Amino acid sequence: MQRLRNISKRTLAALMFFTRLPLWRIAAVERSYFERVVPLWPLAGWLTGGLMAFVLWCSQLLSLSTGVGVALALLSRCLLTGALHEDGFADFCDGFGGGTSRERTLLIMKDSHIGTYGVLGLILYVLVVWNVLTALIDAGLSPLILVVADVLAKGLSTTIIYVLPYARTEADAKNRLVYVKTPFIERLLSLVLAFAPLAVCLLALPDAVPTLSLWLLALLLPACGCVLLFWWMHRRLQGYTGDCCGATFIITETLIYLSLCLIV
After folding, report:
1. Cα(194)–Cα(234) distance, rounded to whole angstroms?
2. Farthest CA pair distance, the chain
3. For residue 10, what pLDDT is reported?
4. Four-residue CA torsion sign, 7, 12, 13, 17
5. Exposed, middle or buried by CB within 10 Å (0-12, 13-18, 19+), for 221?
6. pLDDT at 1
7. What is the 3-state secondary structure (H, E, C) of the chain?
8. Quick one: 258 exposed, middle or buried, by C-beta within 10 A (0-12, 13-18, 19+)?
């Protein structure tokens, strides 16, 4: 019973942290559960990616243009997450674009105001993702690729806490929270959660999504992107921050879509 309670609270913690759903009304979740939410990040992707796919599918039923459907899908995720990842990406762009030292970079990233690098980063991100997704859907791929890409990108992004230390102290962290490294079994669980939507799509709708070999090929570029990002973060910050997590997800997901566009 205690183990079941722990699982339910960790699940609630992950959904409360990575979305804006008012799940805090269901149960009180202790702080220790939020420190271990990263391995369950792909689980939150089932919800965010699922919402995007549903919105895009509804737009197709309403005979809206693909571009409008993609825009609405991206908007729906921003509303569900409170633009959590986009905010982290913007802060990352400002910090790494304008900072020249570790201390200066961390200071800029903690500033709540957005700068030139952050604005340009978000504009370029939206333009690239909107155009690439529109091209993929127009090519006949199912909206379900949004679920698979979202969850796989989150799965890749979780590795950041295993290869880098946290760059701030708990007192300096924006949310006063430091993620803790988890046992191997939980890392394995995170991997299973990341690939589960892909497995379901390949088994249930094999003609609507790229084959497994193409998906694995499409993950090569994002994986290399993660390695380069982690190296850059280590060189600049000697670690990572919450903003780095959001930036890793945004960049990784974008690279997945770009890879699919190149090989499908």
Report:
1. 25
2. 51
3. 84
4. positive
5. middle
6. 52
7. CHHHHHHHHHHHHHHHHHCCCCHHHCCCCCHHHHCCCHHHHHHHHHHHHHHHHHHHHHHHHCCCCHHHHHHHHHHHHHHHHCCHHHHHHHHHHHHHHHCCCHHHHHHHHHCCCCCHHHHHHHHHHHHHHHHHHHHHHHCCCCCCHHHHHHHHHHHHHCCHHHHCCECCCCCCCCCCCCCCCCCHHHHHHHHHHHHHHHHHHHHHCCCCCCCHHHHHHHCHHHHHHHHHHHHHHHHHHCCECHHHHHHHHHHHHHHHHHHHHHHC
8. middle
Q: How buried is 5 (Cβ within 10 angstroms: 0-12 exposed, 13-18 middle, 19+ buried)?
A: exposed
Q: What is the mean pLDDT of each run of 10 residues along the chain (264 residues)?
A: 66 91 83 86 96 97 97 98 96 94 93 93 97 96 96 96 86 71 85 94 84 91 96 95 95 97 88
118 Cβ contact list (under 8 Å, min separation 6): 89, 90, 91, 93, 94
Q: How far is CA 177 from CA 10, 90, 94, 108, 167, in A?
A: 15, 20, 22, 19, 12
Distance, CA of 18 to CA of 192 (rounded, Å) = 19
What is d(CA 222, CA 253) in angstroms, rounded to the nearest whole number?
7
Question: pLDDT at position 130, please?
Answer: 98
From the number of C-beta atoms within 10 Å of its C-beta (0-12, 13-18, 19+), residue 30 rates as: exposed
